[in-house]
Amino acid sequence: MDVTIYHNPRCGTSRNTLALIRHGGIEPRIVDYLGDPPSREALAGMIADAGLTVREAIREKGTPYLELGLDDPALSDERLLDAMLAHPILINRPFVVTELGTRLARPSERVLDILPPDIFAGAFAKEDGEPVLDERGQRV
């Protein structure tokens, strides 16, 4: 299965999502979106395909969100996309794209919605020990 993850290795949710994908036996294409951000068209497409608004796809914590005035509800999607492309840290993560769909994997187990359910064998827990899959590879 072809899987792409827009990844930030410093983010626990992103690391958990990547580990969960790999637990299913898939080696995804990993895009370091901070160094290699998606095009405007690709970003807008991922957001739409994930069923999100542009505002829902913006990361606030640890970003220049407030300094840039992005909390202004009057800002258009185009202006928000401009800011996200100029400051990729504003792109919430991790976005995962598969042939079964696109998800913003927050929490990380949301990636299970777009992966075949029969690929998992065995238990999986997040870095903090929170169980995601049981010993049969089923969602907890």
Strand order across the biggest sheet? 2-1-3-4
- Strand fraction equals 15-25%
CATH class: Alpha Beta
- Report low-confidence residues grouped into runs of 5 or more: none
Residue-averaged pLDDT: 97
Describe the structure.
- This protein is an alpha+beta fold and 140 residues long.
- The chain has a single domain (3-133), classed as Glutaredoxin, CATH 3.40.30.
- The protein has three helices and six strands, in the order E-H-E-H-H-E-E-E-E.
- It has helices at residues 12-23, 40-49, 77-86; strands at 3-7, 29-32, 95-98, 101-104, 124-125, 131-133.
- Strands 2-1-3-4 form a four-stranded mixed β-sheet, sandwiched between helices.
Topology:
Blueprint: E1 3-7, H1 12-23, E2 29-32, H2 40-49, H3 77-86, E3 95-98, E4 101-104, E5 124-125, E6 131-133
Parallel strand pairs: 1-2
Antiparallel strand pairs: 1-3, 3-4, 5-6
Could you give a short description of this structure?
Helix content is 23%, strand content 16%.
Features:
140 residues; alpha+beta; Glutaredoxin; two-stranded antiparallel sheet; 3 helices; elongated
